[in-house]
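thoughts on both lines:
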Amino acid sequence: MSSDGTQNQPGLVITVTDSIRSFLLSASNDPRLSQELRELALTLSSRTDAPYQQIRSIWVGSHADTKPRLLSLFSGSNFVFSSPKPPEKSEELKERLRKLKEIAERKEYQELVKDITPKKDLDEPFSTYKDQLGFGLHVALTMFAGYLVGYLAFRALFNHSPVMNAAGGILGLVFGMLLETLLFIIRTSDHGLKSPSSTSTLKKNQ
């Protein structure tokens, strides 16, 4: 692993031995090389590893009487392998992982406190939308039936008087409301009596 920035260079990377460094230093002072190759040779001579292709291009550009044999130049040099950078997680993936972690922690917490937290009473009256809708329809039907009974009763008693007929309907409606209220009180009272008994049974079983 190199820390000299050659990991981002394309191609094969090798370690810079003393023989390679000596060649690069001499090449950096060779006037027969181009300015670009001399600067490259000087830069590579200060590194601990360098790309093979760059060193070879300097060797090819050097004069035959000033450069060593290629095999002897690279003798003793080793390959430098760099591990690829791990792929970065996207922001969407990070957010999804965070939510999954929160859900897992919430489930774990619920498992820990399930024996401590009292269970919700599933038999609570009007705890569902269906119960509430049924109760509302029942109240409306009772009030309508009370109005109709009162209207017909007063119509038979007071000889088809519109005012008295309406008064009888209103009276029947009020009576229906009172009846429905009484039934509601009885229903909730029965539920309140059942709840303590079920709780005590649960405690005995524990």
Strands lie at 13-15, 49-51. Confidence is low (pLDDT under 50) at residues 1-9, 196-206. DSSP finds seven helices and two strands in the chain.
